[in-house]
C-alpha cells in the first residue's frame, strides 16, 4: 500500500511527482514518459506555446526548459524561437531521470475501489494498491470524431491523435478535417512526407496566430504577457484559477469551450499556405467507401456541393473530455463520478466525488480554466495538489494525515489552506 499513485507521465504527472517527492510522500508514478507527445503528435511539429511557457515544474523552479537547452547547447529564447516536439520530449525525459528515476513504464488497465483505497491493474499483469489515485493521463481517451466518420471503416478514417509518423501516406491523397493547429500541423507533416493533403475547414478562414515581435511598454500594459499569450483575460485565466473554480458550472464550461479557439501557430503558415489545398467555409455532408478509396461529399457556405476523393481521412477535430471514456474506469466507477458536460466536477483540490480519486491536466479545465489545457497549468496544479496530499510541518516532517471524511478506510487529507 502506497499513499498515492500517479497514472500518467506527461507534464502534469511529472511535475506533481517531483513535488510529492520533495514533500516526502510515499507515492508511485506509472506511465510512458511524455508518451502522448511521442505517439500522438505529428513528427516535426513545434509547440504553440512560447519557450518560457513550456517548462515542467519542480519545487526549486531551476530546471526549466531554458536551463535544459542551455545545458545541451540547444538554441532557445523565452519568445520567438519555436520549441520543437523532439526537444520538448527530450526535456521531459531528462526531467524524469533527474527527479523521478523510480518511474514505472507500464500502462494502467483498470482502477477499482477497495476497502482501503484503490487497486490499479496494469497491462503487464501487476497491481498497485494505493490510498489515492491521481489521473494525469492527458487527452488520449477523449479524441472526438465527426458524425460522418461512422460511415467509414477505421482503415480509411482516423483521428489525428492516431498518428505521429506520416511516412505511410507518401504519394497518397489525404483529407484533413479541421482548421485549427492540429489540422495544420498534420497537413504540414503530410506535405513533408510527400503526401497530397487537402484541408477541409468549416470556418470561413484559417486564422493563424501572429508572431509576438518586439512589444512596446504600451503593449505590455494594455495586454500583459502570460503563458496563454497576451491579454488581461489571459492574466485572469493563468493567475486566478481558484476564482474560475467558484464560477457557475455553465459559465466555466462556456469559457473553456470558446477561449483560445482554433488558431494555428504563425510558423506553420509558410509550410501550408500555397502548398496545401485548403477548402474553407466547407463541411463534409457525407462519406462513403468506393473501390478502396473515400468519396467525401462537401457543402460550402452557399450550399454548393462537391466531391473530394482521397485515400484516407484524418480528423483533426479535437477532444472532448468525458469521464466514461477512460478505459481503466469501469462503468460503475465512471457513473459514480459527478460530471459537468462529461468532464469530472472537481473539488478545490482536484478531487472527484469519489474520495481519493483526482484528475489533473486537460480533464481539469472545466473546473480550473483554459490554462489546464497547456503545460503551464502544471505549476499551479503541482503546488496545490502536493500541499493537499502531503502537508509538511514547520520542521519539514510530514504531519499525520487527518481522519478520513468519507469513512474509516479512505484517506482524504486536507491542506492547511483548505
UniProtKB/TrEMBL annotation:
This protein's record includes keyword Coiled coil: no
Record key words, sorted: Oxidoreductase
SUPFAM superfamilies registered for this protein in UniProt: FAD/NAD(P)-binding domain (SSF51905)
Keyword Disulfide bond: no
Pfam families tied to this protein: Pyr_redox_3
Molecular functions per Gene Ontology: flavin adenine dinucleotide binding; monooxygenase activity
Name assigned to this protein: NAD(P)-binding domain-containing protein
Amino acid at each position: 500500500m502506497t499513499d498515492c499513485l500517479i497514472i500518467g507521465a506527461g507534464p502534469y504527472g511529472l511535475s506533481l511527482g517531483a513535488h510529492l517527492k520533495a514533500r516526502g510522500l510515499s507515492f508511485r508514478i506509472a506511465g510512458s514518459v511524455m508518451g502522448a507527445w511521442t505517439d500522438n503528435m505529428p513528427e516535426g511539429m513545434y509547440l504553440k506555446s512560447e519557450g518560457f511557457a513550456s517548462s515542467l515544474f519542480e519545487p526549486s523552479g531551476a530546471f526549466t526548459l531554458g536551463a535544459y537547452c542551455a545545458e545541451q547547447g540547444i538554441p532557445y529564447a523565452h519568445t520567438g524561437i519555436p520549441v520543437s516536439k523532439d526537444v520538448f520530449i527530450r526535456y521531459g525525459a531528462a526531467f524524469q531521470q533527474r527527479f523521478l528515476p523510480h518511474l514505472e513504464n507500464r500502462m494502467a488497465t483498470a482502477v477499482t475501489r477497495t476497502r482501503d483505497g484503490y487497486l490499479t491493474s496494469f497491462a503487464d499483469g501487476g497491481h498497485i494498491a494505493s490510498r489515492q489515485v491521481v489521473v494525469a493521463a492527458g487527452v488520449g481517451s477523449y479524441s472526438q470524431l465527426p458524425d460522418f466518420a461512422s460511415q467509414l471503416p477505421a482503415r480509411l478514417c482516423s483521428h489525428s491523435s492516431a498518428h505521429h509518423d506520416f511516412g505511410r501516406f507518401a504519394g497518397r491523397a489525404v483529407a484533413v478535417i479541421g482548421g485549427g493547429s492540429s489540422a495544420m500541423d498534420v497537413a504540414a507533416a503530410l506535405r513533408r512526407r510527400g503526401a497530397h493533403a487537402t484541408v477541409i475547414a468549416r470556418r470561413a478562414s484559417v486564422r493563424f496566430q501572429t508572431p509576438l515581435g518586439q512589444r512596446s511598454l504600451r503593449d505590455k500594459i494594455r495586454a500583459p504577457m502570460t503563458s496563454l499569450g497576451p491579454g488581461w483575460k489571459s492574466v485572469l485565466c493563468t493567475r486566478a484559477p481558484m476564482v474560475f473554480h467558484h464560477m457557475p458550472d455553465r459559465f466555466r464550461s462556456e469559457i473553456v469551450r470558446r477561449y483560445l479557439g482554433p488558431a494555428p501557430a504563425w510558423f506553420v503558415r509558410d509550410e501550408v499556405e500555397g502548398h496545401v489545398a485548403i477548402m474553407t467555409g466547407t463541411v463534409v455532408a457525407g462519406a462513403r467507401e468506393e473501390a478502396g478509396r473515400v468519396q467525401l461529399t462537401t457543402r460550402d457556405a452557399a450550399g454548393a456541393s462537391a466531391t473530394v476523393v482521397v485515400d484516407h481521412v484524418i480528423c483533426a477535430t479535437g477532444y472532448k473530455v468525458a469521464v466514461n471514456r477512460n478505459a481503466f474506469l469501469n462503468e460503475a466507477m465512471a457513473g459514480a463520478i459527478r460530471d459537468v458536460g462529461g468532464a469530472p466536477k472537481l473539488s478545490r483540490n482536484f478531487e472527484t466525488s469519489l474520495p481519493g480519486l483526482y484528475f489533473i491536466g486537460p480533464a481539469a479545465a472545466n473546473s480550473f480554466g483554459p490554462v489546464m489545457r497547456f503545460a503551464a497549468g502544471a505549476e499551479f496544479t503541482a503546488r496545490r495538489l502536493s500541499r493537499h496530499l502531503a502537508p509538511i510541518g514547520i520542521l519539514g516532517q510530514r504531519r499525520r494525515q487527518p481522519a478520513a471524511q468519507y469513512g474509516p478506510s479512505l484517506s482524504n487529507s486536507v491542506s492547511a489552506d483548505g
